[in-house]
Design a protein that fits this description.
The chain has helices spanning 2-19, 28-39, 96-106, 125-139, 154-168, 193-196, 209-217, 251-263, 288-302, and strands spanning 48-55, 63-70, 78-82, 109-114, 147-152, 176-180, 240-245, 268-273. It has 308 residues and is of the alpha/beta class. It has one domain (2-302): Rossmann fold. Helix 3 (96-106) crosses helix 9. The longest helix is centred in the first third of the chain and has 18 residues, at 2-19.
Length: 308
Amino acid sequence: MMKYINVLAHRSYVRRVMSKLPVANTPIPAQRLHLEKITKNATIPSTVSVSDTTLQLAGQPSINAEWITPADVNNNQVLLYFHGGGFIVGSKETHRPMVAHIAKSANTQTLSINYRLAPEHTYPAAHQDCFNAYCWLLNNGYDPQQIILGGDSAGAFFVLQTLLEIKLQDMEQPKAAFLLSPLADALHFNGESYVSKRKRDPWLKADQLPGLVDLYLGNSTDRPGSLSPINSDLLGFPPILIHVGEDEILLSDSLRLHQQLQIHGVSSELIVWPKMWHVFHCMGGKLPQAKQAISQIGDFIKNLPQYA
């Protein structure tokens, strides 16, 4: 009973936070400031250090990033993380607490990047930044089998797009990937949960998604298949862990993605978290289910074969 009350309390908190941010009417700079405000007091584990860095590839825009390093790193792997935020908000700073908890759980050095945001930078800017971050790791001595990709929401979408781009360029895939509450189809918004969960998810609203994607696409008339990973050729993808909340509107995306990965012969593990909402992992310092989920991500990474 107490666990259920705790879930209700946190769901109510998320609803209160989001009620102060009517996406349709709030200027994007104000949305960004709001997210920064509600995340600035979140703490990171005391045993994790953070250091800024800049990723630079010849002929490409520089990428602001940070290394998140647990004190007890015991492997030679690296986690490359893409934050969420509906293409228009979010940063390595807003997501630092959650990513730091994941890095600590996995005992793995983590590179978290600031990709370019819409509407100032439209498609394919963010996609290019995420792919370029992977290439930067390769150029700096990392083998693909040392790299794990991870992301939440729109960041998980960019993980999928990066895997598709790696496949398109006939490059070696990373060792593995994990996706938290992924948007897996930015062309169609017709999953069953878009209707059945619209009143259950306190964080993400179904009627917001098309507008957010429009901001990302800008004036581009290009609609490549990679915008719909669910309907893409996923053959050759690395092992993937998917986390999704039972009460979120993107539940259908995760269910369909998991099915398509299996059809294409990809090792895919799907965990549906009862009574949880969109990217509930961000409450890892407070919500027991979030702590458990982050621990599970850590186990997924630690149980991968070690790079020799």
